[in-house]
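ESCALATION

Customer reports they have been waiting on this structure for their group meeting. Please prioritize. Original submission:
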Amino acid sequence: MIRKTVCVGIAALFAAPSFAYEVATVSGGGQIAGKVSFKGAVPEPRRIQITKDNKVCGTGTREVVDVAVKGGNLRNAVVYLAKVDKGKPWGEAEKPLLDQKGCTFVPGVLIVRKDAELTIRNSDPVLHNIHTYEMIGTVRRTMFNVGQPDKGDMRQPIKMRRSNVVKIECDAHDFMHAWAFAADNPYLAVTRDDGSFAIDNVPPGEYELKAWHPILGERSAKVTVKGGDTVSAAFEFSR
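Update from on-call: job pushed to the front of the queue and completed.
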């Protein structure tokens, strides 16, 4: 009996987090808009030598920008609402697309719905090998690791256990890197080049708003949304 109880406890510990989002009509929705900024010295990009498929991938070194800042504004941060049970449709996160073009993942930060099928496109006439990891703190758990030798599309499910964060690499080209944020609800946005974001059609209420960056971590704030109004929000990251 004791042995059985222990096994159940371990299974529960590593079970996928429970979430359920219901698409419903939003009455008197509001908007959250603002900017994400960066303060301090910006980390230097990494430079990785291009050693193969030069006709497609280029020559010399590839600059890998982990922290993209322009004019003090942070690009490629994900701003999202936590714990929203129902509301607007999923939109693009329902059918996410990751392209491989010029030996670059496009986009560099992707929003996907948890359990959705990710379409992976190879636009290059070379072999790519897509290796995805669920990032659980500093632990990397392989989700899928598949080769894509020809141009075209394939689909893979985004099955998360304990996290929202997916690291994407190409085992054939070590300079190809991207990230995906696996969302519990569609109330989120990736910051633009100027650090701006907007989340629309939000049901009135009080929420926890979070900003996540794959390298810099996460910030949070409380917001109150009123029908038809736009709530301003800002986050600041530093090295």
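Sent to customer with the following note: Residues 1-18 have pLDDT under 50 and may be disordered.
Escalation resolved.
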